[in-house]
Sequence to fold (670 residues):
Amino acid sequence: MLLEVRDLRVEFETRDGLVRAVNGVSYTVEAGRTLAVLGESGSGKSVTAQAVMGIIDSPPGRIAGGEVLFQGRDLLTMRPEERRRIRGDKIAMIFQDALSALNPVLTVGYQLGEMFRVHRGASRAEARARAVELMDRVRIPAAKERVDDYPHQFSGGMRQRIMIAMALALEPELIIADEPTTALDVTVQAQVMDLLDELQREYQMGLILITHDLGVVAGVADEIAVMYAGRIIETAPVRELYKRPAHPYTKGLLESIPRLDHKGGELRAIRGLPPNLARIPSGCPYHPRCPLARDVCREDPVPPLYEVGPGRASACHFWKETMGE
Amino acid sequence: MSDPREPILEVRDLVKHFPLTQGILFRRQIGAVKAVDGVSLRLYPGETLGVVGESGCGKSTVAKLLMNLERPTSGAIMYKGEDISKLSGRALRAVRRNIQMVFQDPYTSLNPRMTVGDIIGEPFLIHPEVAPKGERRKRVRELLDVVGLNPEYINRYPHQFSGGQRQRIGIARGLALNPEIIVADEPVSALDVSVQAQVINLMERLQNEFNLSYMFIAHDLSIVRHISDRVGVMYLGRVVEIGTEEEIYRYPTHPYTQALLSAVPVPDPVASERRERIILAGDVPSPANPPSGCHFRTRCWKAQPLCAEVDPELVVPGHLREAGLPVAHPSACHFAGQKPEVTAG
Fold:
């Protein structure tokens, strides 16, 4: 197993009180596979990834429990310098906003080359050559001429390619991509997703794709974990999740989005709002919005992740009903 | 296009160029960003006209021009047959009452220091004739109720609301003056997926209730299909294809529309494997220096020398005319034609 997250908990100390952003998340990623973590804002999908990367601001953030096993070793209990080495070498992250993730006063060639100088002890000339190679690899046209350009001189799609190049530089075993195409236009998004997909196959990397977009997930993921209020509420192989969701929230999401292939009637909106993480509802956190909610749903404890099929789990007491069994 | 209906709003050959200047003391114009480069659109009473396109295509500038927040470089904006683009003062205010806007970002478009009651009631200060002073609070409460918010919230501040609720406040403000037309620029794209549907449903309900005409500007093609009666596709300052929702989504004939539709990720793993996708090369060129002829030709797989020389007009292509509707609808391409395997179904 490449990565195994076990019962991860992350909290933030805020003026509103203790915000429980991640409440016992477990998932696994295998080499060469793509796990999509799907959720809306505040679901904890990004915080989980930040905890894996060890880039949670602390304070106010705090990892309150759990394990993050990378190739069997717990990143959370490792010495900081050891962890930093793994993070640079074996795990890389791609952020949503390439413009703020890249340093605006350094050329992209310098920033790409830095990876090789710092981690591989390469010389300046060598690092620069490798930077050009990487830019070619992610299909930036005229890489040789553009290696000395600054981030703002590139378009959004090209900047995201540079981010991908940077993530790939040291040939990591795991890439975490946090909304990598959300800021991009549709036609550019397709280019970038295709590139990511192709590179992942080629290098047999594990990929965690964090997104809110049910469409992006459908195209590239192998497995999906749906998050809500800091928990995983459903996991499934991608096809099965879309065909027969086992949690009312997943089902509600799929039913509420308009379709490209037909106009459709009134949208079946999910009522209410995602919960405030400082005041998560008792029992199942989705119960105030759920059409199936009954008394048992309002009572603690939170519903466990029931096994509902091979490789599938749902944190709903009424998963059978949801799946229409 | 011979439509028997009278448009309530029409733009004709609308052009907006933003000058690019150099020098501080002697500012010389060295070029222009051609944000809107000859756009003609018609909005009919009670319908929703969707305008789609990627960033930089000029769709938001069109919205600003319609609202008279920007003055066009040339062209006309006709409201019920009268050109409003050159109006000012009282005459402009009178027209504006009937055309209101809903903005994208519910976080920055509401003044954080004003209560919800003051925000929604502010239009009455400019148009006191709509609601006499004593009745304004009552009217605001009604508006809150209409958009599905508790009228008791009238004294709360924007930060006490979620994004979806704030967008409802923005819609309530837009409705305050009983407008005929609402120009909505990306009204749901800042909202969570589960909340988008609520706001879309609300907008559709209000349209029926108040017989509103919507200009719905967005980049999300699925949402635009759902809400629109007709759709215009924009690319680099121009409308490249326009037609009914069915004509555009099922029978697109412009290569850009086809590429755009094929690139939309669909929430269906089986369909997304089967779909043939057109991956366009490169990025949208800069609107400061658009390609000659057809603006799309630099990324188009059908491009011929003709495309660089002759601007294709937005008309029903001659060679498609005998195909009849729905294939024969205005498409600004010399080689317009169906590519059935990429339609949205």
Summary: The longest helix of chain B spans residues 193-210. Chain B has a mean pLDDT of 90. Chain B is about 30% helix and 20% strand. Chain B touches chain A through 46 residues (CB under 8 Å).
